[in-house]
């Protein structure tokens, strides 16, 4: 973690007091983390609803192999990440839900991907310093170009999700009936996993491939415990992800702890707090 | 009157295997048909064919006088409960709402009229309080009522109920049957109701459709539930005993239907890997 935290160390020594927004890397971090958190919260809500959280986790690991592989052939890691997760998401969708929900098969592919990631790192050693950033995230190193890229990724993700949202919900909640009413189950599932792949790629830029659960699953799962309404659940999931991401950066600024650690801790705290809440409370807003 | 569902020498195949061979029968408007038979006899297969998901490989199948159309709004369908996720924290209203125009692309929307229609239908099956409760907090009987309400949305003329009594205790089974019988009589809906046990249905059904061994037999209980007919359908020697208003279907002294029912409970928690 040292490599990616050197910047913060410098900050806390020079700017002990107050205004974190005077630093451009801080405003960049807030902008990038904010956009990614909202996208992750929204996409994650459907991931949790469909019971495919493990598939989302696996996609991010496959992305690790893509990112290191891209480094090996001189491309930007982000595009390797996007390319690999997108391809893997589409393949998982086409293999039908029956296979993509199999924990063992996914687990094997997940481990294999990490193995390949390690192999690529082995042959491209100068890239190794970036490995930690890929695995655990490095939101404080985000620049303007990356913010623009994340904004584009996020926009594509949300627009695509909006386009398939109605049949996606129907197919997620009641696949047999949806099929009978003419919903193309496999197409919907494939498009959704492609959307998840894009969201995972964006999310990994903030919290790293090992920790996409903190923004994609934690807030969504907590929101579903607290509210049973569709729109209220989506809004709460996005709001929780956003506040966890921002608050995590603030805590990291004042403590010099890694940002991803702070976000992961907040995510876990919120999830377990939601678990502890009494169940079956009706929600009336939609 | 023209039949609602008519099969003429129809054969239904799944992956090359003929589940139902050369079967013919006609169901009249407003009939309440109990669909019975051993596991794998083709109850779900028949319903999927009527829904237009499985065209017959030979012969003809017509629904409302024409070939079945996938997504026909005039058919209400209650699938066998297999894929309700155990921890689905979605309230009943949103669950039913998801099926309204769920095949269209774009964002979901729920108009005031849709919401009123959902609540009216929940009322009709005595389940208004389920609209704001999470699915994961409902009992098996409540879920079945919710699914029934959903199947009734959009004023269907034909209702396909696939094992709506599965995993319910006897008291809830009676309640579900009574609700279905009442609503369908009032609205003159034709019903195909598949089940494992005949006895609970005796007071509700007009005729019984017995499937087995690739064959199908439609008729009154007196015509169909007899030793010669069932022996042919089960492919083994069957005895039928009538006692105290109940009918027992026995094979070498064992109660066939109860065995089938127990068998199904054994597998209740698992994903049924193949379609019957």
Can you walk through the features of this model?
- The complex is a heterodimer of chains A (286) and B (276).
- In chain A, helix 2 (24-49) packs antiparallel against helix 13, helix 3 (53-72) packs parallel to helix 6 and helix 4 runs antiparallel to helix 10.
- With 286 residues, chain A is mostly helical.
- Chain A has helices at residues 2-14, 24-49, 53-72, 77-94, 96-100, 103-123, 128-136, 144-173, 175-180, 185-207, 212-216, 218-226, 230-255, 259-276.
- Chain A has a single domain (20-276), classed as ABC transporter involved in vitamin B12 uptake, BtuC.
- The longest helix of chain A is centred in the middle third of the chain and has 30 residues, at 144-173.
- In chain A, 80% of the residues lie in helices and 0% in strands.
- Chain A contains 14 helices and no strands.
- Chain B is α/β, with parallel strands linked by helices.
- Chain B folds into two domains: 5-74 and 156-266, P-loop containing nucleotide triphosphate hydrolases (Rossmann fold, 3-Layer(aba) Sandwich); 86-143, no CATH class.
- Chain B contains eight helices and twelve strands.
- Chain B has a six-stranded mixed β-sheet, with helices on both faces. In chain B, strands 2-1-4 form a three-stranded antiparallel β-sheet, with helices on one face.
- Residues 263-276 of chain B have low confidence and may be disordered.
- Chain A binds chain B through residues 49, 51, 162-167, 169-171, 173-183, 224-225, 228-230, 233, 279-280, 282-284, 286, and chain B through 48, 51, 53, 70-71, 75, 77, 79-80, 82-83, 85, 87-91, 93-95, 97-99, 101-108, 110, 132-134, 137, 150.
Helix content of chain B: 25-40%
Strand pairing plus helix content of chain A: what structural class? mainly alpha
Content of β-strand of chain B: 25-35%
What general outline of chain B do the C-alpha atoms trace? Answer: globular
Q: What is the chains' assembly state? A: heterodimer
Order the strands across the largest sheet of chain B as they lie in space. Answer: 5-6-7-3-8-9
Radius of gyration of chain B: 19 Å
Tally of individual domains of chain A: 1
Order of helices and strands of chain A: HHHHHHHHHHHHHH
Q: What's the pLDDT, averaged over the residues of chain A? A: 86
Helix and strand sequence of chain B: EEEHEEHHHEHEEEHHEEEH
Regarding CATH, which class of the largest domain in chain B?
A: Alpha Beta
End-to-end distance of chain A: 42 Å
CATH class of chain A: Mainly Alpha
Q: How does CATH name the architecture of the largest domain in chain B?
A: 3-Layer(aba) Sandwich
CATH superfamily of the largest domain in chain B: P-loop containing nucleotide triphosphate hydrolases
